[in-house]
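Treating backbone geometry as a discrete language has practical consequences that deserve illustration. In the encoding step, the backbone of a single protein was reduced to a row of integers, each denoting a local shape. The amino acid sequence and the backbone structure tokens for this protein are reproduced below.
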Amino acid sequence: MPRDAAARPSTPTGPEGDGGPVRDAYGRRAADYIGQLGTMASVHPADVHLVTTWAAGLGGPVLDAGCGPGHWSGHLAERGLDVVGLDQVPAFVEHARRTHPGARYVVGSVDELPVEEEHFAGVLAWYSLVHHDPGGIGRPLSEAARVLRPGGGLLVGFFTGERVEPFDHAVTTAYRWPPDTLADEVRAAGFTVVELHTRTAGTPRPRPHGALLAVR
């Protein structure tokens, strides 16, 4: 398959969970976001180990869905993986192409992935679904299932809480999810959940964190 054959044209729009207000809010804050969170130095070592180990075992191309500034895409590409980074914010994609050229990048929405069916061995959605409300979370999860090969892996990073509830994220409204509740949504999209990880710091920041691994 040619290097760019996985991508097909798409307009990066969608419901408020991924598109419109969210895209515009990140576009306005892109430079600040890149400066504060746009390198692997900002990532917890346990998360680096988890994502790197997961991706190394996939045996095929990886979609970094909602790649932001591209630091995860670059990190995985440096380790020999075939990576496509996707984000709906053009400023993030432009930065990623300049800074992490080992991966390929496309502007697009996680709600309507501009990718052919069953192309990827893995989809990484690292904090890229946190702005989806309970009524909208099923759409990007179903899209991930569509573009994954049978047996392909999904890894989701998210904010945890005792109930599904919105909170004032630094950029725009985001949601906390109980791990078991999010796991139910993932199963409903056609996945088998194989691992759930949580981490708390005992302080308000960083916020309680979750990671969910599933297989299509």
Summary: Residues 1-16 have pLDDT under 50 and may be disordered. Residues 21-215 form a domain with the Rossmann fold fold (CATH 3.40.50.150). The longest strand covers residues 148-160. Helices lie at 21-28, 30-37, 45-56, 71-78, 90-99, 138-147, 179-188.
